[in-house]
Amino acid sequence: LDMDYINTTQTEPKNSTNVSSVFTHQVLPVLYTIICACAFILNGLAAWIFFRVPTSSALVVYLKNMVVADVLMLFTYPWRVVGDLGYGGLQLKLIVCRYTAVLFYLSMYTGITFMSLISLERYLKIVRSTFGMSSFLQRVSVAKGLALLTWGVMMFFMLPNAILANQPMPKVFSCMALKSDLGRRWHEMSAHFNVGIFWVAFLLMVFCYTSIACHVYRSYKRVQQDSSVARRRSNRSIFSLLAVFVFCFVPYHICRVPYTLSQSHKDDFSTYNRFILFQIKEATLFLSALNVCLDPVIYFFMCRTFRESLLGGQPSRRLTSTCSELVRAHTSNLHSVFTQSRLPVIYW
């Protein structure tokens, strides 16, 4: 896991310094400032809407925890912007290396975990509703337990990266140089753990949403109804979470493979190649940071009450049940067809 995103000078060749300065110290700070302002508004609205209702379903538990993870992640952006612009000196770099960078990755991978839990909850409720463990895993108490376990495990692996960055200030500043020998080994272990979390979450989400899509398609086919509009709306809701996940997180984790190799086996990579990989890593990391702006868009598509509130309508009293319906795209005519054909209506 690359928490050493301040130390750009060690990865750039002399003839590329100006290019790096423009991208990492001028372009990226502006982009982070824009998404920080947008995400502050969007996540503020999301928190205001979701935390007004009781936690009466597993889905709401996971959505609330996603909002918390996004807000924590959002908190780290101003520190990065100020640091990239060259303000704050070494003290700010210490704060970023020891605390805000750790908080950034802690929040990011915690949010990824809750995305996968949402996918699993939807899969169990829609596709495997008759499965014996389905009702148990959808209990609010179980969901709260899984949420606490997620935060606990992620903190166990990530917080030592802050605690073990306790070495004196090095002459040539580097986040890794602040770490003790144990800190460097823990850093490597937590990096592998987080990468494993990502790929397990990605495969789980692909499986769950593919199964849900097939289930919905078969349901529509059985009623033999022209439901292209409803199916389109269903697909939009089904794949919004997966699309955001792929767009934000997959490029970074693909890029991390060659970038990590370039850092651990420097002799096998030229200075210019390491510089290029660093720039690509920074660009894809920005896509991961953009997730805090896109998560509220997911809520907009998935939750009718969130959408109505965002557009100025009055929130429904049945917020919890509405937010539990990830796809509420069935027309009244389609509803009656399902009812008449004795097929289960799919409320998400």
From TrEMBL:
Compartments where located: Cell membrane
Q: Which InterPro entries match?
A: GPCR_Rhodpsn, GPCR_Rhodpsn_7TM, P2Y14_rcpt
Segments crossing the lipid bilayer: 30-51, 58-79, 99-120, 141-163, 196-217, 238-254, 283-302
Q: Which residues form the G-protein coupled receptors family 1 profile domain?
A: 42-299
Q: Which GO terms describe its molecular function?
A: G protein-coupled purinergic nucleotide receptor activity
- Primary location class: membrane
Pfam families (UniProt xref): 7tm_1
Report whether Iron-sulfur shows up as a keyword of the record.
Answer: no
Keyword set includes Heme:
no
Its topology with respect to the membrane? Multi-pass membrane protein
Would you tell me the Gene Ontology cellular component terms? Answer: plasma membrane
- What keyword terms does UniProt attach to this protein? Cell membrane, G-protein coupled receptor, Glycoprotein, Membrane, Receptor, Transducer, Transmembrane, Transmembrane helix
The family classification in the record reads:
Belongs to the G-protein coupled receptor 1 family.
Query: Would you tell me the protein name for this molecule?
Result: Purinergic receptor P2Y14
